[in-house]
Amino acid sequence: MTNDLSVRNIVRKFGDFTAVDDVSFDVPQGSFFSILGPSGCGKTTLLRMIAGFDEPTAGTLTIRDQDMRGVPPNKRPVNLVFQHLALFPMMNVVENIGFGLKRRGMSSAEISKRCVAILERVDLPGYGKKRIDQLSGGQKQRVAIARCLVMEPSVLLLDEPLGALDLKLREQMKVELKKLQANVGTTFIYITHDQSEALVMSDRIAVMNEGRFEQVGSPRELYNDPRTPFVARFVGDNNSWSGEVEESAEYTTICTSEGLHFRARSHRSYKSGTRVDLFLRPEALRIEPKDLTGLNTFKVSVKAILFDGANSRLLTVMPGGHELLVNLPQNRQFDHIEPGASITLGWHPDSGLCFKV
Questions:
Q1: Interatomic CA distance for residues 221 and 196, integer angstroms
Q2: Among 247, 324, 257, 312, which Cα is nearest to 285's?
Q3: Which of these, 295, 35, 357, lies nearest to 188 by C-alpha position?
Q4: Which residues, in sequence order, are bridge partners of residue 242?
Q5: Of 50, 124, 131, 242, which has fewest CB within 10 angstroms of its CB?
Q6: What's the confidence (pLDDT) of residue 166?
Q7: What is the pLDDT of residue 52?
């Protein structure tokens, strides 16, 4: 498969501080690739180097096999969509979209033709004469993307473009962006600190932490099989325990600091006495399981019911005060549970994953 972007051993230093530290990755043509990480992890610095606003201290960066070293931003086959969309309020929609084409010296007839075509592709047919202040937040978002796509970039860079939208519109735009990217076929590189955005939209995700990539994989791989403690904590919700390894066989048996004995998966064998952290998704916990065969089981008391429709959960507490989140099934079979109730929880060893501390 052809790669639209290839990055090799890229480094960016600011004095003694290393913002991007020896990062390498490929982005296949036509894919949706996200870089996910907390604020200050280096993801925007990396994006700026791809866009040409910043030069790497070391390493190489190629777009469609063309070395980008020394190539200024306006000469690169990329376009950038910012969180603050920077649309021109004094121009209508088609004037905004055609601005870059006009600067290239394209004829008015060709600009009009291209703008009509791109408005169709972003699902805004007939919006060309509308003023920017007549558009909703989601429509402005699509105009900003159309303004970039009409330039026919090899790669479209998106720097937290949904950050300024309200929650409901953000949820809608996640689906819209996924559909839009699949429709237009342009390679998207998406920067975000929001794991939900990355999981919903991406073909592949790089999880970034302190200037380095912790793991690169599909959303399913990152969620179901994190390879580092940071990825386990950062991608999705997790309950966790600290403890010591008692035995490493088919499963790793640990004794938690609360004195419970659990069996779980690990990516390697650990010696007895090794300190580990154990991670378990809230949806992996079964409430009052009827068949206890092969399960880790223990008692908790219900502290609160966190109602959120289909995403409702129990906040439970173990003896000693350790809190756990437990997903409530959507079939409402446990609607009778009230705060203060004592319940049994169980989970299969395949669902838990432990890492050396």
A1: 15
A2: 324
A3: 35
A4: 277
A5: 131
A6: 76
A7: 93
Cβ-based burial of 139 (10 A; exposed 0-12, middle 13-18, buried ≥19): middle
Task: Assess contact for 8 and 20: CB atoms under 8 A.
Answer: no
Grouping H, G, I as helix, E, B as strand and the rest as coil, residue 255 is strand
Residue 59 lies in domain: 3-233
> At residue 258, what are phi and psi to the nearest 5 degrees?
-90, 0
Helices 137-149 and 93-103: crossing angle in degrees, nearest 10, is: 20
Give backbone dihedrals phi and psi of 330, rounded to 5 degrees, phi first.
-80, -10
C-alpha distances out from residue 277 to 37, 242, 256, 345, Å: 21, 5, 9, 19
Prediction pTM value: 0.88
304's enclosing H/E stretch is: strand 296-306
- Judgement on whether residues 288 and 179 belong to the same structural domain of the protein: no
The amino acid occupying position 345 is L
- Answer yes or no: do 158 and 100 share one domain: yes
SS3 label, residue 44: helix
**207 lies in the same domain as 75:** yes
How far, in Å, CA of 103 to CA of 94, rounded? 14
Say if residue 31 is in the same domain as residue 176: yes
Cα–chain-centroid distance for residue 108? 40
In which residue ranges of the chain is pLDDT below 50? none
